[in-house]
Design goal:
Distance between the termini: 34 Å
Radius of gyration: 23 Å
Number of domains: 2
CATH superfamily of the largest domain: MetI-like
Structural class: mainly alpha
Protein name: Carbohydrate ABC transporter permease
Shape: globular
CATH class of the largest domain: Mainly Alpha
Transmembrane segments: 12-31, 67-91, 103-124, 136-159, 180-202, 238-259
Subcellular location: Cell membrane
InterPro entries: MetI-like, MetI-like_sf
Membrane topology: Multi-pass membrane protein
Number of helices: 13
Strand content: under 5%
Largest sheet: none
Length: 273
């Protein structure tokens, strides 16, 4: 046991070093957000500072709340629709036998190879023609379209590995395909759904280019656009900028840790159980 413990010491040392490299920037950002400008210029690299919430109050006064709520609305709606549409599309492809199942699956996979920014101009023209330009809904459609291919790919592969015995037993009991999907298949997809929620949430929450092109009014700006405005107005006031960045990062961390727990629970519990 002692020899085995000694062999694991280098691994723990490497893990601590890696934690320092990855955790220090976030810790520095949080601690700097509590500093005043005078404290920052006096000792910019110090991690020990009195707690001061003036920078957070300043960020709220400059409109961070509006940008934040716009991002929450767009991200929540887009992720919800991505999960539902991807699950509905993956169910017949993976669980039903028909001639077009593989061609349809390959068509969705081909969507993963499409460069997203190559569609920027067509989507801009389509949004203008539809009359949805400079609105929150102008971003929902593109976000759903770009999130569906990878989500369908993950759910189809995961759904294909689920045992068919449970589904066949439900069919014998008289369950329809819709009842089987909602009551049996969907609860078993928890690990895969958590994965695509994390992936799409981070992508949509931090997306900048399409928001910059499709949004013009300040009241419709998302958080990445608002952060650009903060950077322009608070270039000198670094602690206030760090406060805005800290608040913008918290939802990503929260969603990641919550969904990560669901992934572990789903994997350890097992779909068959």
């Amino acid at each position: 046991m002692a020899i085995r413990a000694l062999k694991s010491v280098p691994l723990y040392i490497f893990a601590v070093i890696l934690l320092g490299f990855t955790g220090y920037p976030f810790l520095y950002m949080v601690m700097t957000s509590f500093k005043t400008q005078e404290m920052f210029f006096t000792d910019p690299f110090s991690l020990f500072t009195p707690i001061n919430f003036d920078n957070y109050l300043l960020a709220f006064k400059m409109g961070l709340t509006g940008y934040f709520m716009n991002s929450v609305y767009i991200t929540a709606l887009s992720v919800l629709l991505i999960v539902l549409l991807a699950a509905w599309a993956s169910f017949p492809i993976s669980r039903m036998r028909f001639k077009l199942s593989k061609p349809l699956f390959m068509l969705f996979v081909a969507g993963m190879m499409l460069p997203i920014h190559s569609t920027l101009i067509p989507i801009f023209k389509l949004t203008k023609d539809m009359g949805s330009y400079d609105s929150l809904m102008a971003l929902v459609g593109p976000y759903i379209g770009f999130g569906l291919p990878i989500s369908i790919f993950i759910l189809t592969q995961f759904m294909s590995e689920l045992p068919r015995e449970v589904e066949e037993a439900a069919e014998i009991d008289g369950c329809s395909h819709g009842r089987i999907f909602w009551s049996i298949i969907l609860p078993m997809l928890t690990p895969a759904i958590a994965t695509i929620v994390i992936y799409n949430f981070i992508h949509i929450w931090t997306e900048f280019i399409f928001a910059l092109v499709l949004i013009n009014s300040p009241e419709h700006m998302t958080l990445p656009l608002g952060m650009q405005k903060f950077y322009g107005e608070l270039t000198v006031n670094v602690p206030a900028l760090m406060a805005a960045l800290t608040m913008a990062s918290l939802p990503i961390l929260l969603v990641y840790f919550l969904a990560q727990e669901k992934i572990v629970t789903g994997l350890t519990g097992g779909a068959v159980k």
